[in-house]
Design goal:
Elements: E1 6-10, H1 14-25, E2 29-34, E3 49-50, H2 61-72, E4 78-80, H3 85-98, H4 101-115, H5 118-128, E5 135-136, E6 140-144, H6 147-152, H7 154-162, E7 168-170, H8 172-178, E8 188-192, E9 196-198, H9 201-214, E10 218-221, E11 224-230, E12 233-239, E13 243-245, E14 248-251, H10 257-263, E15 271-280, E16 292-294, E17 299-304, E18 307-311, E19 314-316, H11 326-338, E20 347-357, E21 364-367, E22 374-378, H12 384-400
Parallel strand pairs: 1-2, 1-14, 2-10, 4-19, 6-16, 14-22
Antiparallel strand pairs: 3-9, 5-9, 6-8, 7-8, 11-12, 12-13, 15-18, 15-20, 16-17, 17-18, 21-22
Pfam family, one: DAO
EC number: 1.4.99.-
Keywords: Membrane, Oxidoreductase, Transmembrane, Transmembrane helix
């Protein structure tokens, strides 16, 4: 009987909570372990966009050709702390291999398959957790200051159209209407109407956690150090303060998953994209009706229930380096000079979070190849909030041994080891 078995979920972010909720709904006893149960995790700090249009992986031939200049430019959306470069090098090698035409296409196929049902999973989870109020059908704008910049992305738009992604071109007047706080800044934009917004990511996650508690999920505030094995199976986890037994184990602790995955024999090329945000006090003014990606500055603005959030791009420096807010502060200063409505908005807070990033942009989801009673659910990169509920639903199906909504083979932890050397040729 399922209710005689205990599922231990390691991690209480949106992915871990979703795994816990759907496993509990399937009839299992569920325990969630996290050292910071109520901490402000990665999904708390993002722009709140359910970005179901993001079928194209970051690893692609075009971006690979730009990588040297991105690494060297002071104004690049990509920042690498050079002391971290030796540790990052294996990830960069895999990123280069994943950027070849063949692997990049496989990544797009995988992302397309899971993104198609992501909103349905959010609706199911939000309804069950009384959290529908946080979801809004806003769409998502990608905006450009010039016609030339808009034209430079025509190949990407054509590729997205081929994948069936809905989009609409917006004129300057259209953008001014949807983004009154940025009036006159953008010449052209693309609206992705199927995307939605979580208007308060922190409260959304807290509501899901509360529903888990109401349904009998046990939360344990502790840090998992390693696994215990017996008869070639994981039988319990060793935490700092206690030993926690279980029948089935799910590693869903985001950027901290690599070490625990290695403990069960899974060698995954996971690294950490550090993402910053700045919260601006809008003084109760509506500056954006849809979240907006500013192409030239590579930042996202999102009007949340409690202010305007600006999120930065990518920094690689690992999990332990102290925050470096200079880059996002410098970008904000430049933007305030371009968008007068933002000039007087005070900064309420700054924040740093950690995105668990796979070099091919595809998360790891499914049963471990080395420990049959262990499951992996991490590596979602910029799509953690978008794919969290669907990942939880898929993991619960896999635990039951049921047919999963989509084929999980492309999300296997062993996919890098199985790729042929010919994939390394970039076309």
């Amino acid at each position: 009987m399922q209710d005689q078995k205990t599922v231990v979920v390691i991690g209480s972010g949106i992915v871990g909570l979703s795994c816990a909720f759907f496993a509990r709904r399937a009839g299992y006893r569920v325990r969630v372990i996290d050292p910071n149960i109520n901490d402000r995790r990665a999904s708390f700090g993002n722009a709140g966009i359910l970005a179901v249009c993001e079928t194209l992986p970051l690893a692609n031939p075009a971006l690979l050709r730009q990588l040297p200049s991105l690494l060297l430019s002071r104004d690049s959306p990509l920042h690498v702390r050079w002391r971290y470069l030796p540790a990052l090098a294996p990830w960069l090698v895999q990123f280069a291999r994943s950027s070849a035409r063949g692997p990049s296409l496989r990544s797009a196929l995988a992302l397309n398959s899971i993104l198609q049902t992501a909103l349905d999973a959010h609706a199911e989870l939000a309804t069950a957790c009384s959290a529908v109020e946080f979801l809004a059908p806003t769409g998502w704008i990608k905006a450009y200051q010039s016609e030339e910049a808009f034209g430079s992305q025509s190949a990407e738009r054509a590729a997205l159209a081929d994948w069936g992604v809905a989009m609409q071109s917006l004129s300057r007047a259209d953008v001014n209407e949807l983004a009154p706080g940025f009036e006159g800044v953008f010449a052209k934009a693309t609206l992705f109407p199927d995307c939605q917004q979580v208007k308060n990511p922190g409260r959304y996650i807290a509501r899901i956690q509360g529903a888990c508690v109401e349904h009998g999920v046990e939360f344990i505030e502790d840090t998992v150090r390693h696994f215990h094995f017996a008869d070639d199976r994981v039988t319990r986890v060793q935490a700092t303060e206690r030993v926690i037994e279980g029948d089935i184990f799910v590693i869903a602790c985001g950027a901290w998953s690599k070490r625990l995955a290695a403990d069960i024999g899974e060698r995954v090329p996971l690294d950490t994209e550090r993402g910053y945000h700045v919260m601006l006090d809008t003084r109760n003014r509506m500056l954006l009706r849809s979240p907006l990606f500013w192409h030239e500055k590579s930042v996202v603005f999102s009007q949340l229930d409690y202010g305007l959030r600006m999120t930065s791009s990518v920094e690689f420096a690992g999990l332990n380096a102290p925050p470096r807010y200079q880059n996002i502060d410098r970008t904000l200063s430049v933007i305030k000079g371009i968008a007068p409505a933002l000039a007087e908005l005070p900064v309420e807070s700054r924040w740093l979070g950690f995105r668990p990033s796979m070099p091919d942009s595809v998360p790891v989801i499914g049963r471990s190849a080395h420990q049959p009673n262990c499951f992996l659910a991490f590596g979602h990169g910029h799509l953690g909030l978008t794919l969290g509920p669907q990942t939880g639903r898929l993991i619960a199906q896999a635990i039951r041994g049921a047919r999963t909504d989509i084929d999980l083979a492309p999300f296997s932890s062993s996919r890098f080891a199985s790729r042929s050397s010919s994939d390394a040729t970039v076309v």
